[in-house]
Each structure stands twice: as structure tokens, then as C-alpha cells.
């Protein structure tokens, strides 16, 4: 029997797929776009990059790649293929999502909302014994600035920072209604900003801090090397981000999915860092990379210089949107189910430099084999 996995080519999805195949020895059918040969080549290349070499043949034998599309009814599969897949599927991991923070709402809904609806329809067709794990985001909390977001919370009263958040909220609402209607258990996982200290191979999905480092590098060879003195950035002084190592997140997600209650209903877990990362730490890493540059966080930048305009334009959307949040996230459900998984260490200067692409990756103690 097999797991149906969506989102296998994403930054998080590829790592979850690797762990399911190699560390847990599971049989997985990865659904994705393209031709069958191209899809399998892309996935195998990505997994080999994570492994640092060829995958074991046994893991390759357990990997099945199926061309389909979550945004289309019946996953864009012919009826006979759909039925055969449902007949051998005992679990679904739904990780596919359009994670753009700037795409239009209707464009995002096609993948994030309609795609979730189609995956749930498949799980219903596969039968009552098919368990669903839905990868959401901690940012379904939207514009809420303060307080502690409950794991059971799903509230849109504060509005949303981005259309992406709204579509993930709408997808979670679909999941809840489906679980209640069918008396089915669903595990919902809500990660925050995911990063790694290991640089992805060229062509592989990048993570947000890597994008920030690449954005700064795109100004290298010119602007950043020549700028000296203070450069003002329109960021709130003392801002923080909830950033969590993807290696920790993967281990937590695997254990949560394996140990989540089987009683009907939605069981939601925040996969976040217990300690927020100061934005100042990111800016200091960029300053170290470009001596003479001093980045200053200010509420407003009246009459910006050319350098200030260029540098501000390279700041990724997540930095603008999320560093004003002062909220926390409940983790009691996660801690009760995975007490054997140590909290991730706070991101320090060495890790941040590596995540930005400015230095070697530090040793990561969370990269261990999972026993569930």
C-alpha cells in the first residue's frame, strides 16, 4: 500500500519525500506535472542532491511518479488510473501549494484551495481508512499582531497580509468541513518560515533566507561594494521573524503524522521555532559580507537615496510582511506528541550567514534517522 504525495518538487516537499522513502522505507506515489520521464528525473535528481549522492536502489524501487495536477478535477487523471491509485492508497500527504506572496488571489486559489478540494475528494474516494496529512502554514493567522495563536484557532477577523495566507486559510476551512462531514481524522501541520543552512543545488527550490542572500548578491559587483555609511531600510526597529530550520520541521512533521490521534476531527500542530530570530541578525550578516555598509531599520525613509531605493527593492516580501508580528504560537499539541524531539537551537550568526549563502553550513544535530 502506498502514500500519495503532492508537492514533491518543493523546498519542503522534497525533504519530506526523502524522509518517507529513505528514512521510513515507505512506498510513495509522487504526483506532479510534466512528462512521466521528466517528472521522475526531476524528483530523483532533487532527492540525490539531498542525499549527497545516488539514492539506495530500494528507495528508488519504492518511488512511483505519476503525472497529474491537483488544480484540476480528479487530479487530471484518467478514470481508470484514478481508481487504481485510490485502490492502493492508504495515506495522503498534501504538500503542494503556490507559495507566492505577491500572486493574485484568484490565481492562488486554483492550486491552494481548488487543489485541496480535489485532494480531499480523492481521499474520500480512497475510503475511510485513507489518512490525510495537510501541510498548511502558521500564517493562516493573517494580520494578527499580538497574543498567542491557538493550534485550534482559525480566525480571519484580522484580515490577511497576503493573498497566499488567505488561500491557505480557505484551504484549512475546507479541510475542517470535510473532516466533520465525513467523520474523518486529518492532521494539519502549520510551519512558519522554513530555512536551511545548506545551500540548495542550482535549479532546486530556494528558501526565503537564501532568496534574501541572492537578492543582496544581485546588487554585488556594484552598489553594495561602493556604498559606505548608513543605509536606511523601512523596517520596524527591533523586528523579529519566526524562522525554523527545515531539518527540524521535517522530523517533527513525520512524528506528528505518525502519532496524531485517529479519532475523527482535525488535529492541528504549529511547527514553529520557540524563539524568534531578530531581523537585526540578518542585517548584520549582510553588513559583514559587504564591509562599509551599515543597514539601519527605521519606520519611514523620507527622500530615499538611489542606494536605499535599490536595496529596499531587494528585500523579499516575507521580511516586509512578517517582521511586525509580535505574536506567539501555541505548541502544546506538538510537545505532547513529540517529547523525544529536542527544540531546534536558536538561529545564531553562523547559521544566518550560511542560510544567506555567505558561509559554510554549521553542523545540524536535527538531521537524524527517525524512529516512530
UniProtKB/TrEMBL annotation:
> Record's InterPro entries?
FAR_NAD-bd (IPR013120), Lipid_A_modif_metabolic_enz (IPR050177), NAD(P)-bd_dom_sf (IPR036291)
Instruction: Please indicate which superkingdom the organism of origin belongs to.
Output: Bacteria
Where is each Thioester reductase (TE) domain found?
Answer: 6-253
Which SUPFAM superfamilies does this entry report, sorted A to Z?
NAD(P)-binding Rossmann-fold domains
Question: What Pfam family is a match for this entry?
Answer: NAD_binding_4
List where the protein spans the membrane.
none
From the Swiss-Prot or TrEMBL record, give the protein name: SDR family oxidoreductase
